[in-house]
Amino acid sequence: MLITKKEQHKTPLQTIIEDLKDGFCTIEKDGSFIYINRVAVELFELYNDTEKYNFYNDIIRDGKHNNNIQKILKDSEFVKDYEIDLYTITDNTFPVLLTLNYIRDPHENVVGISILIKDMTYFRKVQQQLLQAQKLESIGMLASGIAHEFNNILTGIIPNAELIKMTISPDSQNYNRAGSIQRSAVRASDIVKKLLSFSRDDKINVNEISNFINVANETIDIIKKLFQKNIEIKSSFPGDLYQVKIDATRLQQIIMNLSINAKDAITDKGEINITAQNYVVDNTLSSPGDLREGKYILLQISDTGQGILKRDLGKIFDPFFTTKEPGKGTGLGLSIIYGIIKSVNGKIEVQSELNVGTTFNVYFPATGKKAIEDFNDFSIEIQDHNKTILIIDDEPMIREMSSDMLSTIGYNVLVSDNGINGIKIFEENSESIDLVLLDLLMPEMNGITCYKKLTEIKSDVKVIISSGIADLNKRKELEVLGVAGYLEKPFSLKTIAEYLKKILDSNYKNTPRN
Question: In this structure, are residues 233 and 224 in contact, taking their beta carbons and an 8 Å threshold?
Fold first, then answer.
């Protein structure tokens, strides 16, 4: 669409300008439009009555920018890549780069100004995504630091709760209290994992089984306490519901995030309904989204909110896409959920109608097997192992707890508060030390450096490295070095007892991989 003050035949130059992918226009010195190409018409939404509008007054609308542009033009006779937000005739704004040049007649008199308009909307969006990614990277670093400190604390709580249970009768009230402490600490550990899963790409254990009803009810209890009273939350689950093939932390994350989205869609009073049912896919049924044959749990979370525009439905799972106001959404919640569900071979669908509400259908792979959750199933063999373990950890609480724990189940224990002293102790007792429990992150000398020094003293030393940060890349690096095992904090007494027995009873040899 070509707009000029006078109808005329297009010249080859006009055809080229009209076909530009950037906006282009020419104006009088006072800002009145002379010519506008098709792209500029669309950018300005200036489809009719071009003569009525002025570039300075109606498109820029900022006296400071107008004065600045005209001053630069006067001094340099051109303006290049001037960054500014322009207005459309309908009062929308969009970011651009402007390049302006004087138009002169044969006598060198200024008769107008040519303007090239580079729409920067896409680049601004990419810039915002980059800033968001940088924020996430910073959050990830902060979360890792918090996880390390927090998991060290929990490592002193969980085994001690287990030690208390070992020393008193199961019928005692204190036994139940210790069990409550243990369960609370394990849930706190799950919160740390959840924090890390939001800030980095954690590996998902597709073989873990969770009790769907327990996790869902626990999450709904949290939601009811957090959400405002104008939102009624209803839930219904049949008693014969399958067990779900996903870890409890990520299942809770999915229910929580979808519920928060539902809450945000409700502007006044409304309802959120959370239901689930068994679902079977076989060769006689058409399955949604090419689900594999097998058992599933179909989770449905619906709301009576404002709904989602049809044009946005296909984009809601895209990273950084959000329909929320600036500052109220990162655009990452649904994309993270989508990734989690895909990784466990599930499916998520959405149906929405404006001013009626939205329903998310999530299909989780399921099984009839029972989820292992009983903290009272507690049995540890206590005997004189005639084995000596050296504990190297800079945290006093971890050293004391680990020493107490391992001594209780029959091991001889030596302790060191850092890598340098640990190497000295190992050098003096290398023949009698059967295994080293070594912290990964320590001042002065970290766990990897310490491990290398230990292998120089005794090449076949068995070392378990422990850390409060579940870093898969670091674990792979340690495996390549030939470390006997990697133990993630916080660990339970039962976990470390079984892990020690497995490694000490094995014919493990330190064989670094090339």
Answer: yes
55: DSSP letter: I
pLDDT at 199: 53
Over range 168-173, report the average pLDDT.
Answer: 88
- Pairwise CA distance, residues 114 & 22, whole Å: 13
Q: Are 103 and 114 in contact (CB under 8 A)?
A: yes
Cβ pair 365, 296 in contact under 8 A: yes
Question: Do 439 and 466 meet the contact criterion of CB atoms below 8 Å apart?
Answer: yes
257-296 pLDDT tens trace: 999 989 988 988 899 999 999 999 876 655 565 788 899 9
Phi/psi at 178 (5° precision): -65, -35
Q: Report yes or no: 309 and 270 within 8 Å, Cβ to Cβ.
A: no
Residue 279 CA to residue 291 CA, distance in Å, equals 11
Q: What is the DSSP letter of 59?
A: I
273, containing H or E segment = strand 270-281
The per-residue pLDDT for range 230-250, each reduced to its tens digit, is 899 999 999 899 999 998 888
Helix (H, G, I), strand (E, B) or coil at 297: strand
- The Cα–Cα gap between 51 and 34 comes to 8
pLDDT at 6: 43
**Token pair for residue 223?**
């939601």
Find residue 243's DSSP bridge partners.
367
Quick check: 368 and 414 in contact, CB under 8 A? no
For 141, the token pair is 């670093």
Question: Closest by alpha carbon to 254, among 344, 188, 189, 167?
Answer: 344
Pairing between β-strand 485-488 and β-strand 463-467 as defined by DSSP bridges: parallel
Which residues touch 435 (CB under 8 Å, ≥6 apart)?
387, 388, 389, 390, 462, 463, 464, 484, 500, 503, 504
CA 280 vs CA 273, 364, 367: distances in Å? 22, 11, 11
DSSP strands (E only) in 41-121: 78-87, 93-104, 110-119
- Max alpha carbon distance in the chain (Å)? 106
The residues that bridge with 412 in the sheet, in sequence order, are 388
Q: Exposure of 49 by Cβ count < 10 A (0-12 exposed, 13-18 middle, 19+ buried)?
A: exposed
Say how far residue 364 (Cα) sits from the centre of its chain: 20
